[in-house]
């Protein structure tokens, strides 16, 4: 088992060292070893639309109508989402919305309640 970190962009396990950098051969993402060490120490640093830090288990409020892809459903402004889980990637919040089900949200469309 390799001690190298997974790629922060695509979560690939096939990363390798190149001097002072880590490189992902699948998505060509490069990041410094220092940045990887800082990310391990700090964990995820995700902020809401107002700049407030979010944590696992927080309750957030949706600040914009969001269309649900592949469906005619809409998450309305003011919808409260309880017990969020922070994940890496483009859509950085995993949650379950009443009446819709499990979803991934972007932190830029929510505010801490």
Automatic annotation (TrEMBL):
Please state every residue range assigned to the domain named Protein YjdM C-terminal: 46-113
Any idea what this protein is called? Protein YjdM
Name the protein family.
Belongs to the YjdM family.
Domain Protein YjdM N-terminal span(s) in chain numbering = 4-32
Q: Which Pfam families does the protein's record reference?
A: YjdM, Zn_Ribbon_YjdM
């Amino acid at each position: 088992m390799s001690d190298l970190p997974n790629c922060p962009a695509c979560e690939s396990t096939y990363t390798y060292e190149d001097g002072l950098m880590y490189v992902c051969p699948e998505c060509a993402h490069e990041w410094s070893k220092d940045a990887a060490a800082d990310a391990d120490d700090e964990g995820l640093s995700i902020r809401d639309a107002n700049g407030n830090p979010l944590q696992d288990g927080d309750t957030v409020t949706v600040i914009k109508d969001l269309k649900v892809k592949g469906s005619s459903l809409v998450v309305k402004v003011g919808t409260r989402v309880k017990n969020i889980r922070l994940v890496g990637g483009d859509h950085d919040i995993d949650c379950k919305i009443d009446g819709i089900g499990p979803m991934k949200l972007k932190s830029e469309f929510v505010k801490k309640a």
